[in-house]
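Tokens as discussed.
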């Protein structure tokens, strides 16, 4: 708890402090719900710039993400990555696509993806890339087989054994990737 208090006190922005607290609360709730015990029994430790860990449990892998007012968490017995992204009104889509998927050409996206679907496609690609980075610590050089949304929600890059994408609203995407054959992903809200 002292590590978490120290880390919280070092965060400058109030919005980021709220995200940090919400992430820790959600992690403990998820741990208690999925693995038993109470929220207070789950001790988390984290170094600066590191993912949270459960003290004394090397078999428990955690991932936390936040964007705007949204926070998402994942708990697994295998390496896991989770990300949430919310559309920002100041985005310039050509620049965002070149940052997330540098091999895609904006002209091709404009030609092949309906304007209404472009933000969703960007959010899906972005969360998938972040998921893999959080799971492995290595950047995913995402090269989707096409730039179409058709069936992409169900497609997983080769780097993943289990992948799930959740979208409740058009301007927000949450995705999670976990390692392990037959891994069962479920959404808890």
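Sequence:
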């Amino acid at each position: 708890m002292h590590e978490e208090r120290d880390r919280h006190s070092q965060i400058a922005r109030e919005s980021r402090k709220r995200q940090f607290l919400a992430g820790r609360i959600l992690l403990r709730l998820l741990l208690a719900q999925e693995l038993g015990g109470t929220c207070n029994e789950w001790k988390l430790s984290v170094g600066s710039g590191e993912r949270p860990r459960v003290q004394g449990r090397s078999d428990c892998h955690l991932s936390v993400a936040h964007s705007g007012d949204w926070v998402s968490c994942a708990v697994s017995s295998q390496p896991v990555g989770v990300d949430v992204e919310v559309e920002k009104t100041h985005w310039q889509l050509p620049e965002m696509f070149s940052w997330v998927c540098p091999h895609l050409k904006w002209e091709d996206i404009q030609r092949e993806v309906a304007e209404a679907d472009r933000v969703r496609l960007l959010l899906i690609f972005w969360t998938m890339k972040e998921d893999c980075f959080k799971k492995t610590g290595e950047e995913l050089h995402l090269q989707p087989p096409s730039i179409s949304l058709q069936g992409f929600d169900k497609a997983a890059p080769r780097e993943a054994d289990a992948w799930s994408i959740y979208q409740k609203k058009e301007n927000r995407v949450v995705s999670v990737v976990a390692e392990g054959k037959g891994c069962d992903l479920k959404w808890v809200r």
